[in-house]
Design a protein that fits this description.
The complex is a heterodimer of chains A (154) and B (213). Chain A is α/β, with parallel strands linked by helices and 154 residues long. Chain A contains 4 helices and 9 strands, in the order H-E-E-E-E-H-E-E-H-E-H-E-E. The N and C termini of chain B lie far apart (101 Å). Chain B is an alpha/beta fold and 213 residues long. Classes of the chains: A alpha/beta (154), B alpha/beta (213).
């Protein structure tokens, strides 16, 4: 029995007991601020840039229409197409789509439905005008041309 | 009769808690997006009624600000070619608050203007060949089927910008604040209606030609 016992090995360890807490906080942040991406985009979406943008008033009353060139050109061709809820549609199917979306809403709110048009910057106005005419027929007149924000005075 | 020692308390190994948390976090990072849908708002004209004939346009030419875009993305504004789209906003603003021949409502609108707007009208407005007043002024935009969507948005952006500037100046706030005005709050709603009174956002999108293919 030596007088001097074992040299106590002092090692400084950073307490990592709080690590799960930090991770959980980050997790809850993401759970709260994000939405599940439900629709797989099959068309190119290079949105235009504009200054005079307005926010959507009620997210629950918005339906999305995507227009652009298909991503898989070998399968679908290079002409711009209209995508709605994971499928390609023709302009004449838009009325049916609008009625489907309206049925999901409350009776009183049906007139306030807003159609958000996410159109690729390279498309020509022909297909967009067809969609607009069909939307007029379907009485979904509130539109939002989705764009990215830029500042004024560039 | 062996006395049992206290069982050593079993501790759940919580070292893997962090791993579980990481996995969940990565799952959410991958499958979700931060929604940020913003855009230019527009109200389409109502459905064309097949029984009624197309409405007669009885407006005087000077009350219509014509913007035409062809399939080559060239602009014709009030029958004159325009090279730079960004000039459009000031042109539309001058047109809307021209007060060339104002009626009673228009005079009331003019009187409600702050002095900056009044001096704008006096210096750049009151032209007899431009609009009679904001109650009558209509901006008409006609594109071709071959016009690019980018130009369409730029033109809409400029025209909306002109109206937003007029409204914002009338409400005595910055244009950025005007755009972000939350109309759900009652005091904002009042400000909003006051600023827009007498100046309707009359943007008419005409049905496009098919000339340029």
């Amino acid at each position: 029995m030596s007088k001097f016992g074992k040299k106590s090995s002092t090692s400084q360890e950073i307490p990592t007991a709080a690590l799960p807490d930090i991770i959980f906080m980050l997790l809850f942040f993401f759970m709260v601020t994000t939405v599940m991406r439900e629709v797989e985009l099959m068309v190119q979406q290079n949105l235009p840039k504009a200054i005079q943008l307005q926010k959507i008033e009620r997210k629950s009353l918005v339906s999305y229409i995507y227009i652009g060139e298909p991503k898989k050109k070998e399968l679908f061709g290079a002409e711009p197409k209209i995508q709605v809820n994971d499928v390609f549609v023709e302009a004449k199917d838009i009325v049916r789509f609008v009625n489907q979306e309206k049925d999901k809403l409350d009776e009183v709110l049906r007139d306030q439905i807003t159609m958000s048009l996410k159109v690729d910057i390279d498309t020509k106005m022909g297909i967009v005008t067809d969609v607009q005419q069909e939307l007029r027929e379907a009485n979904a007149r509130k539109l939002l041309y989705s764009s990215r924000q830029i500042a004024e005075n560039l | 009769m062996a006395r049992k020692k206290n069982r050593p308390t079993t501790e759940v190994n919580s070292g893997s808690m962090a791993d579980i948390a990481f996995l969940l976090l990565i799952f959410f990072l991958v499958t979700t997006t931060i929604a940020n849908d913003k855009g230019i708002a527009m109200l389409l004209p109502p459905k064309p009624d097949p029984n009624e004939p197309p409405p007669e346009v009885t407006k005087n030419d000077r009350n219509i600000f014509k913007i035409l875009a062809n399939s080559q993305d060239r602009l014709l504004v009030e029958d004159e070619p325009l090279q730079d789209v960004t000039e459009l906003k000031d042109m539309v603003k001058e047109f809307v608050i021209n007060f060339g021949n104002p009626d009673e409502d228009d005079i009331a609108v003019y009187n409600s203007f702050p002095s900056t707007l009044k001096s704008f009208v006096n210096s750049r407005g009151k032209r007899p060949d431009s609009s009679d007043g904001p109650g009558e002024a209509v901006v008409s935009f006609k594109a071709d089927r071959g016009t690019s969507y980018e130009l369409y948005i730029q033109i809409l952006d400029q025209v909306n910008g002109a109206y937003n500037e007029i409204y914002a100046e009338r409400a005595d706030i910055e244009v950025d604040e005007w755009r972000l005005l939350d109309r759900k709050k009652p005091e904002n709603k009042e400000l909003y209606t006051k600023a827009r009174k007498g100046i309707p956002r009359a943007i008419s999108i005409a049905e496009p030609n098919k000339i340029g293919g």
